[in-house]
Design brief:
The chain is α+β, with helices and mostly antiparallel strands. The chain has one domain (3-265): Jelly Rolls (Sandwich), CATH 2.60.120. Helices cover 28% and strands 24% of the residues. It contains seven helices and eleven strands. The protein has helices spanning 3-12, 16-27, 31-34, 39-52, 70-80, 141-150, 248-262; strands at 58-59, 82-84, 113-120, 153-164, 168-171, 183-190, 197-201, 207-209, 218-221, 226-230, 237-246. The strands form two sheets. Strands 1-9-6-11-4-3-2 form a seven-stranded antiparallel sheet. Bound molecules: fe (ii) ion (FE2). Residues 171, 173, 228 line the site of fe (ii) ion (FE2).
Amino acid sequence: MSREEFQANILKKDPATIQTVISNHLASANMQQCFPLPKEYLEFSKYLEKKYRGIRWLPIDVPKIKFSNPEEFKRVWEEESIDSLRVATDVGEIDPGDDPILNATTDRVYPHFKNLFIYKVTEDVVGFPYTWKLSTHPIFQEIIDQVKTLLPFFSVFEMNIFESQLPIPPHFDQRFFFDYPTEFRVMIDDDNSQPTFYVIDTEYKELNFVDLPEDTNTFCWSNKTQLHGSTFFGNKKHILVIAGMLDLEKLDVILERSIEKYQYKLNYRLEL
Ligand SMILES: [Fe+2]
């Protein structure tokens, strides 16, 4: 199935599929319930929600986050990463069942991705119902340092790297749930010639691929206004996921700067 066919098929499923995912997620225990947020945080959030609702996805104006020795990373990855198998129901996701688009197979048997956590402050992982592994290999320290220096987190809980093995159906993550971007990812490397990672706007029901510019590999989206997922054509890519408590003032600054730089390079019309 080509990228265009995939895109058309996903959108053909509207509105029922997307609505089911939204309803499941709204009923779920998202991270706001695990970590009650201070009043000031919620108030500032209202301001950010008005200001940034229009963002579907956005490149982040920071230098590329990367390994100084990418080949060594790939060697460590092959040695240490594990298959992620689902071990619990994720209420934030639709049950793929036997739907050929959402998944012909189940991720309890066939892993959809490999993973390796490279940073973790709690003993368990939050909202991640899959098998996982933490690496303490020193090669990851430079990535941890770049994330902490460049991205707008007050406190990072976890960082992990994924490598998709199959298409990832559209879903929400069990994290924060606001109308402004809270999800940050870094495309560490990507062997695909075209973008594969996409978001779907829950209001407009439109799918946009994350088509990164040359000068950054970091991007963001809202885990409330957008579903996300990925096509898969057999090529490798490694994505870094960062979970943590955002510093909202720093977030505001970095979003403004990134909009200024990239608003006319997006594949949708950003209205603010
Ligand atoms: Fe996800």
